Amino acid sequence: MVNIKTLIFLLAIVLGYVSVLWLQQKPNKTFSPPEPAVACPVISLEETITPVLGTKHFVVAAYADNRDGRRTRIIGIINRHSGVKLYCVFCCGNRTFFNTTAEVQQHSDHFGFPYVTTDLLCETAPVCKSSHVMVRGPSPSAGNGARFLPIQNQHQQEDEFPYEFTVCISNLFGNYNNVLQFIQTLEVYKILGIQKVMIYKTNCSQTLDKVLSYYKEEGVVEVIPWPITTILNPSHGWNYAKHKGDLHYYGQLTTLNDCIYRNMYSSKYVLLNDIDEIIAPYKHRDLHQLMEYLSSQNPKAGVFLIENHIYPKNVFDETGRFSQQAEWKNVPGINILEHVHREPDRKEVYNPTKMIVNPRRVEQTSVHSVLRHYGESYRVPPDVSKIVHVRVPLQGQLSKEDLIRDTKLWEYADEVIKKTNEVIKRVIESES
3-state DSSP call for residue 212? Predict the structure, then answer.
């Protein structure tokens, strides 16, 4: 008969063996011991797309994210068909490397394209006071041309922010040249209380580039280089079956997510809309009053969905009130003050939305809604706020009489005309 000491001894061996197996099955909790580090080669914040050496993947930026544990979140662009395991290498404050396995979270919206916006989550060890991180593939070497991303959002606050409202413009591409609408839209933004507009730029016309420089000097615009066409063949649309390419719409989903994290602790609210869209309050003077009202009525909401409404650019105000601006004749682009007729709702069609978000409540976003977030979302009634979107019509069969006259933008016309003329005089006319 086996005595009790023998049983205890055997049980201890079994428990020890099981513990080892369990640890081996949890790579995100298992860290390799620190190894000596040389000086970490650092990537500039101006470099926004970096290849992961030895893989088909790319990384964009790294952010400290302690909302659900002590982690570093790296936004990347991942080839969905490549199953290569990825690792985070932290460059520690005591000049050692610290390795851990990355948890790969591909975003659910990829629309069939081979590449998808992805979060790489790596747990941060308390002993490694790291300010930089690198992503690598199976190769253990941290050298050979690899460089480290600065970890942003190290200092986090919840109450006071440099900006109340920031607009994220996902990308400028195709040598964008809608200069007049761009200037008018930014001036409306400023009237409504927008303090910063962050723009991801692939390319634009020389004239618009000068306008961007003007607003950068003014402190309103921040331009993030987005050279997506140099590394991939991005799609011109959202549907892979129709538009083909490597990645959805010039990487729009990646830039929107990156913009949220870049502004997470610098802006109280972030607006996610296109450059030709204006989120306009219809019952409040400005965005500050609008959000004071919405947040007080919906204290658990961190995402506010605003309906998009189309104002056809081929339908003009019959009075011609704002069509005779001599200073605008030689400026390319649409005069939004001339287009005050809105397409009616269609009962069988669900109006798409864009968003005003509390960035600290968002984990992942798509274009028209968030994918993962904390708290609730609220769809704002269109009589409270709607998007004024001057563009090609969606209901082109409608006559002018079928459209709804909506002169909301005229409320800002005097200031917009004055400021637009100033920009044209300083930027465009001075160059001619």
Answer: helix
* Furthest CA-CA distance within the chain: 106
Cβ 57 vs Cβ 79: under 8 Å: yes
CA 48 vs. chain centroid, Å, equals: 13
Structure tokens at 391: 């563009």
DSSP 343: P
Give how far Cα 107 sits from Cα of 74, 78, 190, 372, 394, Å: 13, 10, 33, 9, 29
d(CA 66, CA 252) in angstroms, rounded, equals 25
Token reading at 226: 């987005």
Task: Supply the pTM of this predicted model.
Answer: 0.89
Pick the closest to residue 309 from 343, 350, 354 (CA basis): 343
Q: Which two tokens stand for residue 368?
A: 């028209």
Question: What is the chain's mean pLDDT, rounded?
Answer: 89
**Residue 264 neighbours by CB under 8 Å, 6+ apart:** 63, 153, 156, 359, 360
Which contiguous run of DSSP H or E holds residue 192?
helix 179-192
Residues with Cβ within 8 Å of 109's Cβ and at least 6 positions away in sequence, in order, are 117, 248, 253, 366, 367, 371
Amino acid at 349: V
Asked if pLDDT for residue 276 goes beyond 70, the answer is yes
Beta strands in 242-291 (DSSP E): 267-272, 277-281
Angstrom distance (rounded) from CA 74 to CA 65: 10
Cβ-Cβ contacts under 8 Å for 56 (sequence gap 6 or more): 79, 82, 84
Of 33-42, 107-116, 352-361, where does mean pLDDT reach its minimum?
33-42
Give the angle subtended at the CA of 328 by the CAs of 324 and 330, to the nearest 5°. 120
Q: Hey, which residues does 168 pair with through a beta bridge?
A: 198, 272
List pLDDT tens digits, range 5-14: 555 444 444 4
Of the pLDDT bands very low, low, confident and very high (cuts 50, 70, 90), residue 126 is confident
